[in-house]
């Protein structure tokens, strides 16, 4: 998504001179096309993310649309109060670009994992929070949101290749994307982990469990109506997110279920344990946290078994 | 003896009256910047119209002294007496800390260490837009405890934001003690200078010195400017001066009468 971000931003910047790009000294081999095309609208603010968020606020107040770029934790958590008291409080068009949600920085360890960014950002009224599932959706999302009057947070993946089959680059603010309609259980997945969820759905289908797959990329505004409609059609719902289970889309689904008086049982799949110092590749980290396609599949199979006969499968599960 | 010009004297009187009416503190912090704010609003800031491209920006980064700015806005007829009398009242836009929702305030503040970054961004924007507008940010000395402030100090010097001026209200006090005891800032002027700023040390309660210093600054080229303004906390009210408790304390009736009479004597 990083490449499509820069490509899209370049196109927009050619048309709109308000667009600027700031970085907290990250983006080597990624941001150069923008830097080279618009050297006067590109600022490496140094390893100083709080100031970068403040600079962006001052620029936006004067009419610019500054995008500021860093790894998720440094883009969101370090300058969080600046974002709150700056772009959000003043309702300015600052764009926060966080790269590498979840475990994407693998062996870099916990300091580089984005595991609570969605929770803290969606807690704030007045900011749009977008977590695309693949590059095509990232492009659609950027094109739909770059010119919003208030701030936007983009949680982007480094992964430029993965495609979520059936998503077709669709995105709409405040809407969820139904990638697949099934009769048995529903999987609701957040952004970048949707490919794993889709793979799990494929496996489950072969095992006789017919799955609805729903992607949430517009986290805030949340697709509450879509979720209520989808959840009400299922008795067992799973949320999948590369994020702590508290505060993310699992919590969002729980809010929708409670507020609408729905009867579905919710199983939240996400990161449940604190860090113990053990790291590895993103794939490894997802696996040990129960977020690989296989682990998601197993968890859903187990819940279906445990919930029988409450969950009536459309056909006999293997 | 206080040597306040008329504008700063009026600011002081409003600070005392409004703090008493609302029964709130932060009096000493507001009094210490009365002369700085007075000179800025009376003589320095160019504000041809709200939406004018050349309108200077002023950011009170030490937001807890907002009453001094409200007083200036009132004296410049930018807010009404009714609004001013709503200071700290229910439903008022005039809280302890300034909010951008109030016309005349460009940036909200209240969390120390953020205003200079906003100001650096605003100054960079002015330069990019080829506007002659300037940005003034008033920070407190205690605020220099905040690490993020020094990020903004480095950024501004690196980009030679000559249209940016930081005014450091050095009253030597912070909420829970004297700055020299809490987290020493000395030598403050050398620190700002070492970071690449054009530093001027002045008596921050001397309106003429303040005005002369601002008027001599080169806002078009060179380094950003730091005015190390040596002020007296609670300036103008003898029993408040350099007393820690007047960071938070409200006045009794007797204290109010004494404060008013001292301010009046010096008008």
Compose a concise summary of this entry.
By secondary structure, chain A is α/β, with parallel strands linked by helices.
* Main pleated-sheet profile of chain A: 7 strands, mixed
The profile of the biggest β sheet of chain B is: 5 strands, parallel
CATH superfamily of chain B: Thiamin diphosphate (ThDP)-binding fold, Pyr/PP domains
CATH topology of the largest domain in chain A: Rossmann fold
Mean pLDDT of chain B, rounded to whole units?
Answer: 95
Backbone shape of chain B: globular
Name the structural class of chain A: alpha/beta
The proportion of strand residues of chain B reads: 5-15%
Question: Overall pLDDT of chain A, averaged?
Answer: 96
The low-confidence parts of chain B are: none
**Count of DSSP helices of chain B?**
11
Index terms:
heterodimer; A: alpha/beta; Rossmann fold; 7-stranded mixed beta sheet; 38% helix; 20% strand; globular; B: 267 residues; alpha/beta; 5-stranded parallel beta sheet; two-stranded antiparallel ribbon
Description of the structure:
The complex is a heterodimer of chains A (318) and B (267). Chain A has 318 residues and is α/β, with parallel strands linked by helices. Helices cover 38% and strands 20% of the residues of chain A. Chain A is globular and about 65 Å long. Chain B is built from eleven helices and seven strands. In chain B, helix 10 (207-215) links the parallel strand 6 and strand 7. The mean pLDDT of chain B is 95. Chain A binds chain B through residues 40-41, 43, 45-46, 48, 50-51, 53-64, 66, 81-82, 85-86, 89-90, and chain B through 100, 106-111, 114, 116-126, 128-129, 135, 148, 151-152, 154-155, 158.
Note the topology.
The complex is a heterodimer of chains A (318) and B (267).
Chain A: H1 2-15, E1 19-23, H2 32-37, E2 42-44, H3 49-61, E3 65-71, H4 72-77, H5 80-88, E4 95-99, H6 117-122, E5 128-130, H7 135-145, E6 152-156, E7 177-180, E8 185-190, H8 194-206, E9 211-216, E10 218-220, H9 224-232, E11 236-244, H10 249-259, E12 265-271, H11 282-288, H12 293-307
Chain B: H1 6-22, H2 27-32, H3 34-44, E1 57-60, H4 66-75, H5 81-84, H6 115-128, E2 135-140, H7 147-158, E3 164-170, E4 173-174, E5 177-178, H8 179-182, H9 188-194, E6 198-203, H10 207-215, E7 225-230, H11 253-266
Parallel strand pairs in B: 1-2, 2-3, 3-7, 6-7
Antiparallel strand pairs in B: 4-5
Helix pairs in contact in B: 1-3, 1-4, 1-11, 3-4, 3-10, 6-7
